[in-house]
Structure formats: C-alpha cells, structure tokens
Amino acid sequence: MPSEKESRPRRPGREPSPAQWDWDCPATRRRLEELYFREQDYIRAGSEDSRNFWAFFERLRRFQSRRSERECEPAVSRGPAEPPAASRLLDLPREYDARYRINLSVLSADVEGLARGRRLDPGPPREQLSEFRMALLHYLDFTQKQSFAKLAKLHRERAALPIAQYRDRLLRAVAQNQVVVVAGDTGCGKSTQVPQFLLAAGYSHVACTQPRRIACISLAKRVGFESLHQYGDQVGYQIRFESTRSPATKIVFLTEGLLLRQVQREPMLPGYHVLIADEVHERHLHSDFLLGVLRRLLPARPDLKLVLMSATINIRLFSGYFGGAPVLQVPGRIFPITVIYQPIPKEEASTSGKSERLDPRPYLRVLQAIDHKYPPEERGDLLVFLSGVAEIGAVLEAAQTYATHTQRWIVLPLHSTLSVTEQDKVFDVPPPGVRKCILSTNIAETSVTIDGVRFVLDSGKVKEMSYDPQGKLQRLQEFWISRASAEQRKGRAGRTGPGVCYRLYAESDYDAFSPYPVPEIQRVALDALVLQLKSMGLGDPRTFPFLEPPPLSSLETAVRYLRDQGALDEAEDLTPIGNLLAQLPVDVVVGKMLVLGALFGLTEPTLTVAAALSVQSPFLRPAHANPDCATARRPLESPHGDPLTLLNAFNEWVQVKSERSGCSRKWCRRRGLEEHRLYEAANLRRQFQELLRDHQLLEVASSQPSDSYSRQSRHRERRELHRLWRSHTETEGRKRKVLRLQDGAASSSSEEEEEGGARGRGKRSIDIQDVKFKLRHNVDELQAASSSVLSSSQLALLKLVLCRGLYPQLAVPDQLNSSRKDSDQIFHTRNKQGVVLHPTCVFATTPELLQAKEGSECGGTQDSKDGLSRHHQLLAFVSLLETNKPYLVNCVRVPALQALLLFSRSLDTSADCARLVADGWLELTIPDAEAALRLLSAALQLRATWEKLLNQKLEGRGREPGRQPSSQDVSVLTRGLLEFLQIEVLYSLRRLTGLEKQVLYIGPQTVAAAPRLPGLFQGTEMKPDEVKGGHRVTDYLTYNCLATDTDLYSDCLRSFWTCPHCDLHMPFTPLERMCHESTCRPPEAPLEEAAGSSSKTTALHRLYHCDVCQQEFMFTPTEILRHKKQHQ
Amino acid sequence: MESHKEAQPKGEFKCQLCGLTAPYTYYGQKPPNTRSIVLLEESYVMKDPFTPDKDRFLILGSQCSLCSRSVCVGTECSLFYSKRFCLPCANDNLKAFPLEIQEDMDKKKPQPKSFPSKKMDAKT
Ligand SMILES: [Zn+2]
Ligand SMILES: [Zn+2]
Question: Where is the composition biased (Basic and acidic residues) (chain A) (predicted)?
Fold first, then answer.
C-alpha cells in the first residue's frame, strides 16, 4: 500500500519546517484542502468536518510540540530498544509508533502525483504533507472513537433499563399468546424497547399506537436512533399531517385515532402483524374505543398479536377485558422521593377562591424554600403542575419577578398550545447555579419527560373538559386529580436521582382523591365515536362491549344529535351524508359545511373556514391589551362574524407568504396571530381538500403550470426547498442549548423576536416552517384560492352554508341588549340562557352589528314596542364553552327569519301562518299574513330543492356525470336562496317562555278540521299530527298546530284568492292556498330573466306578460293582481 | 421527507466480550463511498448513525488476530496495534508489546470487572 510507505515513522518537531511554511495561512490550508478534501473525498473542503479537522489539527500540533519539549531526551533513549522476542512471535513492528495504533489509512498516490505534476510550484514539501496526513489519520481515528463511544453508551443505557431483563420473557409471552399486557412504570423503558425487541426477534409490520402526536414523532426518532437506522427507513411515524412511512418501514408509530381510521377503511387491518397499544391506562376516548374494536377483531385475525402497555394502574381491567391475558409486570426505575404536604392555608385559599386569578404565593414559597435549603451548586430543576394555561400565567408572572430578583431561576411555561419551539425550551439546560422552573399543565405528567427534574410542586388540580350531555355543553372545569395522577406527578422528581415532591394539599385530601382519573369516555361528547362505530358496522352503540361503558345518557344524546344533524336517519342508520361525515376526521358540523360548500361551488372558502375552525384560534387572546395589535388586526375583522374573520386572516397570510415569504412571521406577530396555528390550518385545509377529492366531491385539480418553462422553474424551486429542508434536518439534532437568565418567558413574543433576529444575523436565516409550508403546499394554487374576493352574494351563500352546517347551534340576542353596555350583551341558546360572547369575538367589540335597528330609510321603526324589525339576527356558533361563564365561541350572524325558515327541524304555524314557532323555542310573528305565507311557501320549495340536490351530489359521487346535480339546477337554487335572503318583511322575534312552551300546541283534535285538499302539497300526504294537533305538511312543518286564544277555526275560513300562475280565482283557506301555490308554480320559466334582474327583485318577483298591454313586467303575485285589476 | 436508498444490513455484529450488538452493512477493508480510505484490518462497518452524512462509516469491530473472536473496537474489549487483539489475548501476550502499550494496559488493569473470568479462558 503506498500510504504505508509515505507514513514512515517520524519524530515530530525534529526537522524544522521550511521557513516560508505557515500552517495558519489560509492559502496553505486551501492548497491542502484541494489535495485531500476533494468532492469525492471523505472530508470535503468547506464542510463542517473540514472545520473540525483544522481545529483538531491545531490542538494536535500544540499537544505535540509540548510533548516533544518534555520528552525529547528520554524518548530517544527508549525508542530504539531491542524489541522483545515475543513481539516477533506476534509479528509486530520493530519500533513503536503511535501510528500503528490506528486501524485505517489514507490512500494518496494520486494526490501526491497531482501535487507535483500539475503546477509549476513544487506544492507542499514532503515533510509537511506527511505531517498533514498523520494529523488526518489521527483525526479520523478520533472521530471513529467518538462515534463508537456514543454507540457503546447507547448500548449500556439500553441494557440498564429494567425492561431489558424481561426481553426473553416478553418474547416468549408474545409467541405463546395473542394478547399480552406489559405493565411498567415510568422509566422502565417499555415504550422504546418493546418495539425494538419485537423487531429484533423478527416481527415486522408492527404498529405502535400513542395517545399523542408528539409522542409518535419522538418515539420514532428515538427508536430509529437506538436501532441505529436512520429514521424514516425502518422506523416511521404517521400522524395527521405527516408520515414517514415507506415500503421499508417495519414499525410505525401512529395515533390511536389514525389506527381507528385505518380500521374503518380496512376492518381486518391486513397491513399489520403486531399491534402495540401504548399508554392504555390513560383511558383516552380513542384508546378505549380502539381496544373495543380490537377485541372484536382478534378472533377474526388469529395471527395478529396485540401488546397492551400500561402503567401499573388497574391492570386487571385490561387483562380481564381480553380474556385473562398474561401480564408482564416490570418495575420502574425510580429513586426515593420525599413527599412534603404543604396545604394552602385557609385564609389564603378563601381570598383566592373569590377572585378568578390564582394566588401565586404558595408557589413562590416553595421556590424560596428550595433556595434556602439547597445550595445552588447542587443541580436540579423544579417542575410545577398547574391546572391550566391561565394558572400558569399567574404563577409565571410572580415567579418571573422572583427570578429576576434572585438571578437563580429561569421560569418556563409548558403547555400544548405553545409552539413546538417554545416547548422545546424546557429541554435546554440552565447555566451553573441557576435552576429551571417549569410551569406545566398535566402534559408533563406522562407525555413530556424532562431530565434533570429533582423537585416537583403539585397543585393537585387539573382542568379537564367535562361534558353535560343534557345541554350538549362543554365545560372546562377544575378538578382534584386522582391518586394515580398524584403518584405520576411525584415520580417525575425521581427519574435521575432522589427527589422532593411538594404537594399543595393535605395528606387527608390525597386519601380522599379518587384512585384513577375518570376515563375520557365518561366525560366527553360521543358524537364522533357513535358515528365511527356506525360506519364500522358495529351495530347499536348502546350494546357495544366497551372496556367500561359510557353513561347511557351520553350515548343517547350523541344519537339524537346525529339524527338532528342529519347523519343518522330515524332507524339510526347512516344517511349518505352521515356516511361521508364518518370518514372525515372532523367535527360533524365542520364536515357538513365542507359538503354543503362543495355543492355551491364555494369549496375554497369553505375549506379555509372549516380548517381554521378546526384548529385552535390563531388569534392570541389579549388584543385589546395591545392597541397596536388591535389596530393591525382590524382590517382582518369581518362584520359578519368570526369564521369570516378567520377566512380573511388566513387569506391575507397566504398572500403575505407567497409575496414576501420571509415576512410572514413578523406579519403574524404584529397582529397577535399564532403562526403555528395558521400552518396547522393550512395542513388541515389540504387534508380536507384531499378528502373531498377522495370522496368525489371535488374535481381533481388540473392547475399544473402548463408550459414547460414554468414546470421547470417549479421543479427547480422544489429542489432548492428540499435542499434547505435536508440541511435543516441534518442540523436539527442540535445539542441542548444553554439557557440564559433572560430566557425566562416574560413575554413570549419579544423573545421570539430576539430569536428571529439572532437567526437573521447568522448564516442561515431561513424560516424552516416556511420551507416546510412551501414543500407541502402548492403555494400558487393556494394563493389563487385565497386571493379571490368573495362577492356579496357568495358571502351571503357562504354564511348560509356555515349556518346550515352549524344548525341547530343558534343563539338569539336578548331583547334588552340595545340598552346594555357592549361587554354585557347577553344571548340565549335553546338550552342555555344568559350566555355571553367570547372576548375574541368580533361582536364583543362591535355589538351594534347585531342590533335589529332599522336603517333610517326604512321608516324609523327602531325600538318599536312590538319589537318589529326587518333585520332580526341570530348567531350561529361553533361551540359553547363554559369556563367561569358560558361563552359562545366563533359566531357568525345570520338573518333570523330566513335562517329559521330554511333550517328549523320543526316549524309550527298558526292557521294564517303569521305566527311561526321554530324548533319549539323561537316565535316569529309576521303581521303581514300574506307575506308570511309567501315566505313559507318559498322556503318549502327551496328546502326541497336543496335537499334533492344535496342527495344527488352525495349519491351521484363517482358516477357518470348525469347523476350529478346539473349546474343549471344548482344555479337556480343559488338564485332562489339569494332572492329569499333579500326579502324584507317586518316581523318580531321572541324566545318563548317556559310556560308558553308548555301550552304551545292545541294537541290532537277530536273534530278533525281536515283541509279538503289532501295530497296536493308536493305529493305528500297531510296527516293530522297526533301530538301537536294540526296537520303535518312535511317532516318539519306542522300547520295550524299552535294554540291560540283567538280563533280555533280560522283554518276553515276561506277568502277569495287569485292564483298568480293559473289565474284560478276561488275561496281558499291559507293551507289550501299554500298547497295550490306549490303545485301550480310554473316550472323553471322565469329563472333566466331573474339572472338579469336587479337586486331589488325578490324570490317572489317573476316575469309577467300582460296580454292586455302587451308588455312584460317583473311582478310579485300581488303586483300581478293589482295590475290585472287596472284592466278590469 | 425524502428517503434515499441506504445499504441494507448484512447481519448483526456482536462483540463476544461485552455483548454490544449492531447491524453491520459492510465487512472488509474498503467501505463503500470512501475512496481514499482503507482499513488496515477486515472490519465490521456500519453507516455512522450519529451523523446525517450518509457516506460516513463507523467501524464496529473485527476478529482478534490470535483467537479470531469477534470483538468491538472499544478499549475495554480490544486493542489495535498493527493488528487487532482482543484484550484477553493482549493480556496473555503483554510482554510482546512495546512499553507504551504495556503502560496503557497497566493503567486499565484496576478495572478488570468488564471481563468476567469465564471469558478469559480463550487461548492463543
Ligand atoms: Zn466489546
Ligand atoms: Zn483473542
């Protein structure tokens, strides 16, 4: 080997280098790099590696020159000693040289030749070349040792995990049983090791479910790392928007929800051989449901293995559920923890009880106690468990002040609504003498593990969504935690050494805690679960064998809700729309919007609104706190409501991103927007779009740039983006940063600014989120979609779509709102009185938008005693959230009369139809009875058409175009709806009192005042309503069932009326009239004209050709009559 | 986001002294994609899992030139001095090594716990 010859042993420093030789000269280094660090070489010029090499080289030279000074003499005397005879036996070199300790060599014949032959200048002298090459060898050896040390450490750590001792027992159990339960406490290593044991034992197609997305990513990374494959290869993860799965993937970490979706598509789960369900003790809704589904599946898949992993809580429940599955109990690795009970003194508890804000004093006392008792050199951080974000805020503020004062703490918040970068901070290390104080929700109880925690401070509280099935109301309430949670929290102090746990409650409180947390299935809305259960064909949810059945009332409420929403029919079978909704991983309400939007060609804005409503609001709370922010936000605010404000914000943001992408972060900050959530919305939007395409509700886009030039440039751009992405992921495995004292989160926004600035100054000023965004989305397409401004009629339609989606989630303004202060506006829903607007709501700051005041041109009926107006409005809301008050979240305002006529599930009328009751709680009174009848009749027709087209759309999916609703039909409906919305009529709107509701109906009548025109109404038979009285016209309309104190027989009173269509002139009861009108309606005739008609025309205007004056008019039926009278 | 093709593992390397296991992708003296570098012994090599650069390799171990047992390159298991020696073999032949090596070995002596006695019985 040529290298052998070149690297003949040589004592460094003996021969002086030529005087002109300077190792530090950049030109010298460049010359050597040209020779040794070429593109094809192991180390490349200009790379991180080459920089590391030169740093190493300098250290090596310093070290060698020091040693040669020290050892010069003795080395000479010892060096050429006679080699022992034994060394010849082993065939070792005669003379010692450190070089023989290195097991690799650098080939360089070509290099040397190149150096001498290429140029006139002689190249580096042989001696220097040789010295350089020795250094290179030492460097390579050093990097090998470094990496190997990491490998060995990894191996040691894995072997030291308690679960490592159970490897064989586990594999035996899995081989012999279909279901195995692994019960082990924190730190036993089950989540990372069990998947690897199974892989190493030859199992493949393994899925491991996690309750949280973040855990899927981190476990895939960890397991990929530990199993020494680059992650993305054999170890992958799959979460809502991201997947690193490939054909090579042997194990995938995924959320429970996602696996359930897969069961829905392929009930036998043919893609998997082993399922690991991790953290089943947490009892999430999806987890419980998944276990139920798997229990049913196992007999049909005898080859499928199931491993349940749980903390050592309630193990018998899981084992028993799976027919006494064997349990492998693994001890946790935990150090002793001292528990100190420090209940909050009575007097403090009572003062803080009243105010809404948490009293931080008990928390500060613990910080002080730690400072007094433990010297700062003894490291160890503090983890504080608080119930919610508001509580974190309160303690953060006080602790921050204390930290600034003492310079001994860095205070960091941790909760799921923080961005990932902000969350990551808790993993960084504090400088010496300073402790981290992490203020966390129960996220740190199980899902986030922070090393170095020695102290735990437990408030004993948790805030959880609780669900009131009666009111279908979600409540965020504070509860005492369970004993299991308390132990879990305590355990966090003993992961790396002995720890201390301070509990802000008494030991007697602890004893009174419930043993386990309440499973989620017992306390949340079950709509989605029931829908999924139905679509999996699992039968009646009431008899499904759940791990622990949910309250029957919750199931009943869910079934009723789904029926109300039109997802289930009367027999509780899935309707076409229900079937589709079951496949959309979104709230039923949002899913409905998507489908409805698709019908009207409003897909783009509906997608955006649906996505934005499905993520946490990007608007950070205190906009009023910062006037600049409030001003910057104002142009985004829509007077129509929050969903449209979200639409504006998203669209603007997309514009900013596509025009000046680097600025979007700043743009967001200025407006108090959390950009992270806009990214999430963009991801979700795309997912919805794909879902709609998958379900043939959206044509496959063909918006590829057509010419080859733009295709190429798009391709180039993507390549560049990929390069940026790669270079980011390569440096992503960054080391823990050392925190600075000022890193405490005084205000997260200014901090981010700092971070952005620092990055801007550095060499890589790219915004990786932006790169990800551009890689994931077709920005041009998105920009095009978000730049089109909605016309006023599109806006009106969109609101209608939102309202129909949200129905029956409606709230009516209190009648006295106009005399209340802005902040005191009160609303009522059907089930809940006295709700208020969420402070982020547009109408909270501009309530005048909701007041039914008449414009001056309408004749000054404002504040009339009878409450008559043309402009009553309702709020359709996305959710009702109860914290300290019940709040309406995400509201859109809609015209009350039209919305109720179009969407009510139950409409009850008086005999003349001038009095209507919608859904048994809102009363509409229209003094102009004739107008009322016209409106009702128009609404009936619109509803029928809308329903028909929607069903066509849903049923005709993927079929030949003939089965799809024709675009003409759709535009007829569209126009009809728009005209309907523009009808102006004076009416009053009132919420019925409880007493009124009780005596609302006349009830079944013995003397049937049956109308004499049965069957005339659109072919439906009118039957007397057995409960309400009166007659059922459609499944939602009951005619003349309202009790009235005036005239019970008014329905029998006929008056002369001329049909505007057929000119039939005869006495009609209101009902007969309605029936006649609906059958007599001329077919599509007047609609072409309607397109050109001015905006003043209403649904009731139609083309009228007068034979007498030989002219054509746009007339309402009344106008036609009036006109005809002229000629008589 | 992108998956590039990577060398498939050839098998699993296991150090017969410390039990360290790792999948190796290459065995020999000339790992792929490392033009100018050669190994001076037949070694078990894998892609260095600790750097994203897919051309970097990591030498896991090789066979003891005396007893042919597979040993890792960790200093508690083996020694390289122009050839690979497992530590038991090196200790058996301590006198054959230059003083520099012997000194190093002496320094390590106080912690012989990583070599259970039953593993010391291998003979040359
Ligand atoms: Zn070893
Ligand atoms: Zn040996």
Answer: 1-14, 718-733
